Amino acid sequence: xxxxxxxxxxxxxxxxxxxxxxxxxxxxxxxxxxxxxxxxxxxxxxxxxxxxxxxxxxxxxxxxxxxxxxxxxxxxxxxxxxxxxxxxxxxxxxxxxxxxxxxxxxxxxxxxxxxxxxxxxxxxxxxxxxxxxxxxxxxxxxxxxxxxxxxxxxxxxxxxxxxxxxxxxxxxxxxxxxxxxxxxxxxxxxxxxxxxxxxxxxxxxxxxxxxxxxxxxxxxxxxxxxxxxxxxxxxxxxxxxxxxxxxxxxxxxxxxxxxxxxxxxxxxxxxxxxxxxxxxxxxxxxxxxxxxxxxxxxxxxxxxxxxxxxxxxxxxxxxxxxxxxxxxxxxxxxxxxxxxxxxxxxxxxxxxxxxxxxxxxxxxxxxxxxxxxxxxxxxxxxxxxxxxxxxxxxxxxxxxxxxxxxxxxxxxxxxxxxxxxxxxxxxxxxxxxxxxxxxxxxxxxxxxxxxxxxxxxxxxxxxxxxxxxxxxxxxxxxxxxx
Length: 482
Prior knowledge:
The chain contains 14 helices and 25 strands. The chain is an alpha/beta fold. Strand 10, helix 9 (about 225-235) and strand 11 (about 250) form a beta-alpha-beta unit.
């Protein structure tokens, strides 16, 4: 939707009715998966609701993903049909053309042909799951997190309550609704509260400032990188205090929050920048801040109703209060598991129904959670998760490369940049920069592509044969040898 277009809930309901009929006519039924290659739009929202109405599962794929990535997600989800948000995204248009998609009855969408060989899920699982969120693990293989109706609906209520969200609010919706942050915190909570969404396919700092000043935007949420870009834009324009007469809630999620950025945003907007802790495997957020609480730290809030939290030491016992350990959780928001991947599910589940997150944290005297690191080697880029194994798997396919290693390096804008090292086979020439660039563009989404690829004759290794990534990362800060 354009800046001046609007859609009422009554209008949206009409689109939902139309799409539900179209899905049924296309052969989509209870327990099927519908892949949506999307950037944010009202038509995407209508499709998510319509898919759920007929008992199927919506599976969101970011339209900015590469052709190979989208094809892999469609196969992994065993999707009955795929939709594309062609009305707002040229990237989605390109994927639609690749799939020979035809226009949907609802403007701004196109759909693929129906796959008659897709296998429907049966039984209780078919009814309990609302959507599937794609995530990757340390293996680099995509996994589908099954998000339950109960968890999503519960979190919609919890999220709306935590920020006092009501019918008079307007929230900025540029966070991809293919991500749990966008689907649960932005969309589901707003639908629960009956509040308005300003739908945007991409984040543009100038447009946000216009919405704050002229469109009565009251809630602004996004990853820390979004706030970093907004701050840079304010500095470039010489704006000390932006006009935001209706703004009352700011929230940064999906990545660690830098205290300096938090303080700078709070100074400019004269409102606290809230921060929570959530993940795809727990529908929405496990911990959320208290409304209007000012904190001079980057605590990730307090345990939400319906959830349980443990901080577990390396010996498997609960860490002492205030000590750091792995974050474990269980509760109404916890996923039923990874779609058709029992091994991956078993790898993260613990006795008693606890999910081991791989994140490290501690709980302070006030009861607030502080996330202090990651057991996993995940890289955060523009609010999206980049797993080194995903990058390495692509680079390892280059001719002359024996193996590769990807690391995250802090960048000036609050992001992490992806830096990759490739070990060249003895007697082989390193692939050219042009060859590497062509290869990664074909196989990796833009936010996953390395900013630098460094060729080496041999990697530093442990005695057990593991690559010493910390030494590779440290080498980036060493002066070059003459």
